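Support request, priority: normal
Reporter: lab tech (M.K.)
Component: structure prediction queue

Hi team, I submitted a job for SET domain-containing protein from Schizophyllum commune yesterday, and the status page still shows it as pending. I've pasted the exact input below so you can check whether something in the sequence is tripping the parser. The sequence length should be 360 residues. Please let me know if I need to resubmit or if it's stuck on your end.
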Amino acid sequence: MDQEQAIPPEETILRMVKLELSQVSGTDASARSSIVACVLDQLTLDMLNTIPTFLGYESLNPDDAPYCITPSSDPAVGLGMFVKEDLTEGDLILAERPLAILPASVLGGFSESDLEDLFDQLTALMDDRARSAFFALADCHKGPCRALGIFKTNGIGLGDDLVYPDDSGDSAYVGVFERASRINHSCSPNAVYHFDLQSFCLVVRAIRHISKGEEIFISYSETLLQAATRRQNSLQDYGFRCACPACAMSDISDAHRARIGSARPVDLRTPPEEIVAISGEQVWLIELEGLQMLGQYVENALFLIVAYTALEDPARAAVYEDKVRCWEIAIRGEHANFDNIELAKRAGLRIAAAARNDDT
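Reply from support: The job had stalled in the queue. We restarted it manually and it finished. Here are the results:
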């Protein structure tokens, strides 16, 4: 990494750097970018310097990529990403390195002139191909600094591995991507993403079945808010009013999502029959609303494994074991951990044994 220049007025905190990544053979072309333009805090920069080599992500050859980028079904949002073949839960769609990253708080934390200087420096670090791809992205804000508008329109949060600590509560880093930033929003997304630090790639996977020709969607915002709020947020932040099925049928969807957000919690002291009723309804509602990416989905599925194991119904427990496995693969990819399934089954067996002892 070549340290380039401190950014005023926080020169002791933030650094403009050019992250040089080795070429990755045999992967999606967008994952082979050798330079990522970055604004990083010193702690994150020090952490990245401890990684000797960023691993090549086992992605897809360009000719085998399961998607194409064409005009979206909604003309208001421009281009979209569509699948070329049927995909199932956990299937890899894309692994892509960013064109540029910076802390989200920077987007609103500088004067207009400082932001123009910052983005002039940031885009100057890009090679010609990356710079061309960056400026080909949409800017719905139409302000004086086009690069800032592109970041606000296309930025994707990079999760917990890269964290910029400040007092604003807005700690996430944001990345802009040549292809992933083309994926449109739905309040019922069929894909999820996470940032894989070891490969420095955004990894996108199917969270449920996606049929050939269907558009790929991720969620840009909090999905359990009421539709009117979600649509206002999408208009303000991204320049479009969401028209996904959940927003189009908002009366029904809002009622379902309110029930998801207000469900009575269960724990291992809850009788198995009550877990079946409460968590069973939650899983049904979440699937009905297309919200399988929520943590509540896998939490309730795990409690249903506990309950059906305790009720000595292994066939129904196995149904929810499959749901947890699919969720883990979609959310965590090769880092999927299935230990919770075994822990849930053991908890159910203990409850069943205790019930038998009480009967004797």
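Residues 263-359 form one domain. The chain has a mean pLDDT of 85. Let us know if anything else looks off. Ticket resolved.
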